[in-house]
Amino acid sequence: MEFNTKVIHGGQKHDPSTGAVMPPIYQTSTYAQSSPGNHKGYEYSRTANPTRTALENSLASIENGNYGLAFGSGLAAIDAVIKLLSPGDEVISTNDLYGGTYRLFTKIYENFGIKFHFIGMENAQNIEEYINANTKIIWVETPTNPMLNIIDIEASAKIAKKHKLLLVVDNTFATPYLQLPLDLGADVVMHSATKYLGGHSDVVMGALIVKDKALAEKLYFIQNASGAICGPMDSFLVLRGIKTLHLRMQRHCENGKAVAEYLAAHPKIGNVYWPGFENHPNHQIAKKQMKDFGGMLSFTIKGNNYDSAIKVLENLKVFTLAESLGGVESLSGHPASMTHASIPKEEREKTGVIDSLIRLSVGVESKNDLINDLSKALKLI
Ligand SMILES: *Cc1c(COP(=O)(O)O)cnc(C)c1O
User: Fold this and answer.
1) Domain count, the chain
2) Does 265 share its domain with 116?
3) Considering 242, 276, 308, which residue would you say is the last residue of a domain?
4) Does residue 139's CB lie within 6 angstroms of at least one atom of ligand 1?
5) Are residues 251 and 180 part of one domain?
6) Domain harbouring 331, CATH code
7) Is 195 one of the catalytic residues?
8) Is 363 found in the same domain as 309?
9) Is 380 helix (H, G, I), strand (E, B) or coil?
10) Cα(58)–Cα(5) distance, rounded to whole angstroms?
11) Which helix or strand (DSSP H or E) is residue 169 part of?
């Protein structure tokens, strides 16, 4: 089955009792047993729920994995992966990581004796320097937020295999429409399904997808034992979202390109960070591992004036100023005062998060309306 068919049919079957084409929202916590231990595969909804199973099968299918696991949020999914570790274990992660992942690693898991190295992974060979006998996981996020850096998944996988480490890839920004980390040698794909998989800014959810049975069993154990599952209604919503993932992503990419090119040619704009540009430092890797370049981009205003960035953001009408990304509607954000406000100015500026940096999640509206919106706001500075 090809991807565009998998998003609709992958891992799905019609409801056996009624033929319902979409799985019912099984809003139940428990299931009748005919005698103790004799049931139809479902005992208690923390362990498994049929609507969640339908979603988990879809997730496994679209990422070319064998097992899918859905969680109450992206961070709950990340949390489950780190629970594979024991005190003393080490994780090597990119230094341009989603802020919430960084917070979970440093504020929660460092207290439990797990050590994290945050390093530049633009050159995957940098990873090897940090590997020692305690290293267990390489954590990759690509493209990164908000600088749209690209990390070579295949090269990272080779290093992970050589040293018998797990390679985890946060595939939230790219989605399986653009890149398939398991095919490139990753062991675990992680998603904030809140973003493109759900796609409609109406649900918070996380996901993990793996190929290996033994690893899947460990993660299912943690999912059930720690209990950070998602409910049947949310499972239904994300399953519905996935059915149009290919259509939405195609338009996100098309609009992202148009907006990136418009901004790059604008006299008031400094840098535009988008992996589709030939002068992006890892454009060749992006071209190799991604089908297209996505709808996420960031840009700076010439002169790097904080107030100009704020003025632009206050005057955008089609782009909504809000946290999050990946929905059908276009969103704008100001990393320096929003997502990265807790990072000292000097630190964030080292990674490129300067005062005038604006991040856009380009939605699926008409691209002319998006460009006009930016044009009007930029006239005011
Ligand atoms: C949003 C996000 C997360 C966290 O997911 P939640 O669903 O908000 O818990 C993790 N990684 C990336 C790249 C994200 O964008």
Assistant:
1) 2
2) no
3) 242
4) no
5) no
6) 3.90.1150.10
7) yes
8) yes
9) coil
10) 11
11) strand 166-170
Ligand 1: which atom is nearest the Cα of residue 206?
7
Residue 348 among the catalytic residues: no
CATH number at residue 87: 3.40.640.10
Q: Which residue in 46, 115, 240, 376 is the catalytic one?
A: 46
Determine the structural domain holding residue 15 and report its residue range: 3-242
**Quick one: which atom of ligand 1 is closest to the CA of 173?**
13
Instruction: Give the pLDDT of residue 340.
Output: 82
pLDDT tens readout for residues 236-270:
999 999 999 999 999 999 999 999 999 999 999 99
Same domain as 173, residue 89: yes
- Residue 133's pLDDT band, with cuts at 50, 70 and 90, is very high
Predicted TM-score of the model (pTM): 0.97
- Taking the C-alpha atoms of residue 313 and residue 296, their distance in angstroms, rounded to an integer, is 16
Q: How far is CA 211 from the centre of its chain?
A: 19
Mutate to test the pocket of ligand 1, among 75, 139, 201 (most ligand atoms within 8 A of CB): 75
CA dist., res. 312 & res. 301, Å (int): 10
* 277 and 326 co-located in one domain: yes
Distance between CA atoms of residues 206 and 169, nearest Å: 13
Residue pair 230/271 in contact by the 8 Å Cβ criterion: no
**Residues forming beta bridges with residue 141, ordered by sequence position:** 170
**152 carries an active-site annotation:** no
Question: Do residues 61 and 175 touch, judged by C-beta distance below 8 A?
Answer: no
Q: Let me know how many helices (H) and strands (E) the chain has, helices first.
A: 13, 12
- Domain co-membership, 46 together with 181: yes
pLDDT single digits (tens) 71-112? 999 999 999 999 999 999 999 999 888 889 999 999 999 999
**311 and 197 share one domain:** no
Q: Which of 98, 196, 220, 273 is catalytic?
A: 98
Q: What is the pLDDT of residue 49?
A: 98
Domain boundary residue among 213, 242, 271? 242
